[in-house]
Amino acid sequence: MRDHPLLLVVWARYFGQMVVVTPFALHRGGWGFWRTRRLPLQLVRSALLLAATIAFFGALRYLPLAEASAVSYLAPVVAVALSWHVLRERATPARIAASALSFAGILVVVRPGSAILHPAVLLLLVTAVCNGLYALYTRKLRDESAHATLFYTALVGAVGLTLALPFLLESTPLGWRDVALLVATGVFAGLGHGLLTTAYARAPATLLAPFTYLQIVWATMFGYVIFAQHPDRWSALGMATIIASGVLLALWERRRITVA
Fold it and tell me: How far is CA 213 from the centre of its chain?
């Protein structure tokens, strides 16, 4: 990522997603899969995800992968804080407590003297705010077709950055290895979103939520294997706290639904 323009990498991620998810949406939803009654909201949601991706990828140029991934989990805290303003939904005491615990874990990760205490951490705050709003708008679109929403998720990034592509490639020589990495970025992004959508269509969100925190585990592993980065004990404690807050909330929500 450091060897190529930031927007070129982001373009590969979104264009690849469009290439993967569009045939899936067409197969499941038919030729009218793209129809929506709430186009402006779909486009705003898509733009929020694009902004979150640009900010996160930009932060990764300066920050360790594992710690950056952990701080991005400030997004659920943002979602809880803004849920009333966006959805007119009041957060439950359990969600507020889990958000507070997660925020405490993030403060441990971004403590004075940590590897992530860098101006680029502000980009992670942008990522968290955009992702939190993205999640809230996704819920606001729950009455829309899942195939249409999946399609529009990548639309702004794919179309907008494709229009800018000639300027991005103008001074960027690419070898076969570079092309292969960019293609892999797009394909994995598309497969990830497709599998995530399929999972949520077949299983309750409360069952799947704990698995999303595996992202921190994978980020730690890849950071160590590929970049020789590893969190210190305090950062590890902070990340464990973030994971614990999410898993405990998911188990609580699942128990509440079962009892009800």
Answer: 11
